[in-house]
């Protein structure tokens, strides 16, 4: 299978409220996102994206619009983490993203996959689709999710 992968980075805060150790504290990460797409290679002489599955700049633009700019410098808070949710709501103009599950790297990768799957789906009639997403929380810890 032929794929292309675009890497982007963003910063976000989170906490894992029931964690046994450090991760129950408010803290942040520089997340690294790897987006892998598959689809037919575009064959259209004279087109800017001739010979590409998708121009990397378009991969980046869609990722930013639908996910990266939404999560960058936001605090990603679990919807049932009432104490932190209320605190963040008390801060004027604070960038907060409420997540319907605990913001572990596994869950954030799954949420990101669903968002980006819809964003890339068959934009050119070439079967373009999100194949895999990797989300690094630290250089040493990451989750991967693949389309099934
Ligand atoms: N399965 C998971 N385990 C942990 C998660 C997670 O999302 N899924 N998250 C955390 C913490 O939030 C944190 O992101 C990881 O911290 P840590 O284990 O300290 O990671 P480091 O890379 O900084 O660890 P080093 O020991 O410095 O390499 C915890 N667990
Ligand atoms: Zn963390």
Automatic annotation (TrEMBL):
The active site is at residues 23, 73, 137. Zn(2+) binds at residues 14, 27, 29. Signal peptide: none annotated. It catalyses: 7,8-dihydroneopterin 3'-triphosphate + H2O = 6-carboxy-5,6,7,8-tetrahydropterin + triphosphate + acetaldehyde + 2 H(+). GO terms for molecular function: 6-carboxytetrahydropterin synthase activity; metal ion binding. It comes from Pseudoduganella flava. PANTHER family: 6-PYRUVOYL TETRAHYDROBIOPTERIN SYNTHASE, PYRUVOYL TETRAHYDROBIOPTERIN SYNTHASE. Pfam families: PTPS. Keywords: Lyase, Metal-binding, Queuosine biosynthesis, Zinc. Its cofactor is Zn(2+). One of its GO terms (biological process) is tRNA queuosine(34) biosynthetic process. It is an enzyme of class 4 (lyase). Its EC number is 4.-.-.-. The keyword Phosphoprotein does not apply. Pathway: Purine metabolism; 7-cyano-7-deazaguanine biosynthesis. Transmembrane segments: none annotated. The keyword S-adenosyl-L-methionine does not apply. Binds 1 zinc ion per subunit. NCBIfam families: queuosine_QueD. Coiled coil: none annotated. This is 6-carboxy-5,6,7,8-tetrahydropterin synthase. Belongs to the PTPS family. QueD subfamily.
């Amino acid at each position: 299978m032929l794929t292309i992968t675009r890497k982007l980075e963003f910063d976000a805060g989170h906490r894992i409220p029931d964690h046994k150790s450090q991760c129950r504290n408010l803290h942040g990460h520089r997340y690294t996102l790897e987006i892998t797409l598959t689809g037919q290679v575009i064959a259209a002489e004279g087109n800017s994206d001739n010979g590409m599955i998708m121009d990397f700049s378009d991969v980046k633009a869609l990722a930013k619009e639908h996910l990266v700019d939404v999560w960058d410098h936001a605090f990603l808070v679990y919807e049932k983490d009432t104490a932190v949710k209320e605190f963040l709501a008390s801060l004027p103009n604070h960038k907060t993203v409420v997540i319907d599950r605990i913001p572990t790297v596994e869950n954030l990768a799954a949420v990101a996959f669903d968002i980006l799957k819809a964003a890339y789906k068959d934009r050119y009639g070439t079967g373009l689709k999100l194949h895999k997403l990797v989300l690094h929380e630290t250089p040493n810890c990451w989750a991967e999710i693949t389309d099934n």
